Amino acid sequence: MKVIICGAGQVGWQIARHLSGENNDVTVVDKDPDLVARAMETLDVQGITGFASYPDVLDRAGARDADMLVAATHSDEVNMVTCQVAHSIFNVPRKIARLRAQSYLDAIYSDLYRREHLPIDVVISPEREVALAVLRRLSAPSAFDAELFFGGRATLLGIQIDEDCPVVNTPLRQLTDLFTTLKTIVVGVRRDGQLFVPESTDQIFVGDQVYVMTDSQDSNRTLEVFGKEVKRQDRVVILGGGNVGLAVAEALERRSHRVRAKIIELDRNIAEHAADALERTVVLHGNAMDMELLREAGIARADAVLAVTDDDKVNMLASVRGKAAGCPMAICLVNDTSLIPLMGPLDIDAYVNPRGTTVSSILRHVRHGRVRWVYSVGDAEAEVIEAQVLSTSPIAGHRIRDIEFPEGVLVGAVLKDDTVVKPAAETRIEEGDVVVIFAMAADVPEVERLLQVSVDFF
Predict the structure, then answer these.
(1) Residues of the chain scoring pLDDT < 70
(2) Predicted pLDDT at 180
(3) Does the CA dihedral 410-161-325-230 come out positive or negative?
(4) Going by C-beta distance under 8 Å and a sequence separation of 6 or more, which residues neighbour residue 380?
(5) Which of 231, 283, 400, 402 is deepest in the core (most CB within 10 A)?
(6) What's the confidence (pLDDT) of residue 454?
(7) What is the 8-class DSSP label of residue 390?
């Protein structure tokens, strides 16, 4: 597949890293020659320096025979014009644009993106994706990672294994014997910084980070099995009232059980805008690092503090201060992935990486086969792929034990007729089933091959 990626920042670089590693023909376009040089030096990609929206630049990038264009520059307007040029002049079949401004995303203006107006096939909103990720973390407060699959019927949980975990040193195959009715399977383990797909004979040790796929109805019980307390979050302090903080607060106000939320925002204009947009949420103007203001917001009585300002260091330090003041849980927004290893030493419970969520959203539309959702795990170490099985897929009609999956691949859940099934060796994958597959990055191309339809399908 020939792909043009416009914007060589962190999101563009990560997408290029994914696709070039899978032997796609990738060209990166950016106005900054240093970013283009970095991409060409570190990845197997071609690079073009210039403005992505200029027709001659896209022509040099190979737009005439490109299969897809991803517009992920820092400017919404450049991304939109780039998609228009790619359509009108070069007839690029698939165009994906990252848009930040909420006005462009309002549902009442969705007609804007029709082919006869502004032909963008997929619009990705980082702020909305991040807000949803924060809410998922909040719904599973004792998990450091959480993602929904099967329309919310199944959940991927990232769980830190502590000394009080009841199943420490237990072989994974025994978990099935101990908890026969629990629809949960361990799909990934990170140990000493290395992520791997476990065997049934592997044990879980203190300090491990495990990724488990579970029926959403079993989420709370799964957390308890791994020694985690399950508690509803009724009081929340949100640090940052911008697009992410506002979206989180609005979602909390819409919940059936009332959540008492307070926002602290440094910029007066942003604070006033948030106060006007929200009905029950209290908005305080001031510095999230101010201990007195945190106390005024009731941080000691809060169940969670959500640090979602646009400054990573403020988010991390304010989270530490919030926990020091008595808040039991901190969720932190971190753009710089090099800071993620500090989460543990700083006792920050969970983090959300905006670039990671954006990359996951874009990958869903890049993957081959009938892929419905993709979630990127860690620093692009693995992917969790949700896909529908078609009649001509190589895995259709076969038992899991008979399918030649690579070592770094594990089926985490199967949806059969709206019922979540815990996969076993004898489980037969049928046409129409939806599967969730955990795959190490190097094995993703093989998973794609197993999910692809054959030419006979057409």
Answers:
(1) 107-110, 367-369, 453-458
(2) 82
(3) positive
(4) 14, 17, 18, 356, 359, 441
(5) 283
(6) 41
(7) P
d(CA 105, CA 125): 8
Q: Was domain 235-346 assigned CATH 2.60.40.1510? A: no
* Chain segment 213-238, per-residue pLDDT in tens: 999 999 989 999 998 887 777 899 99
Across the beta sheet with 209-215, the strand order is 145-149, 154-160, 209-215, 184-191, 194-196
Model pLDDT for residues 27-45, shown as the tens digit of each residue:
999 999 999 999 999 999 9
Q: Cα(353)–Cα(381) distance, rounded to whole angstroms? A: 14
The Cα–Cα gap between 247 and 306 comes to 12
In our burial notation (b when 16+ CB lie closer than 10 A, e otherwise), range 411-447 reads bbbbbeeeebbbbeeebebeeebbbbbbbbbebbbeb
The reported pTM is 0.74
- Calculate ∠ Cα 388-389-394, nearest 5°: 145
Nearest to 47 by CA among 57, 36, 38, 62: 36
Q: Using alpha carbons, list the distances in angstroms from residue 24 to 224, 355, 443.
A: 43, 21, 15
Could you give the residue range(s) of every CATH 3.30.70.1450 domain in the chain?
130-225, 359-457
Is the CATH code 3.40.1190.20 the one for domain 359-457? no
Burial label for 267, CB within 10 Å (0-12, 13-18, 19+), is: middle
CB atoms within 10 A of CB 255: 9
Whether 92 and 65 have beta carbons less than 8 Å apart is answered as: no
State both tokens at 385.
């792929």
Q: Work out the burial of residue 361: count CB atoms within 10 Å of its CB; fewer than 13 is exposed, 13-18 middle, 19 or more buried.
A: buried
Answer yes or no: are the C-beta atoms of 300 and 291 closer than 8 Å: no
Distances in whole angstroms, Cα of residue 366 to Cα of each of 16, 108, 351, 360, 369? 11, 27, 26, 10, 10
341 strand-pairing partners: none
Given the candidates 1.10.287.380, 2.40.160.40, 1.10.10.10, 3.40.50.720, the CATH classification of the domain at 2-124 is 3.40.50.720
Report the C-alpha gap between 270 and 285 in whole angstroms.
9
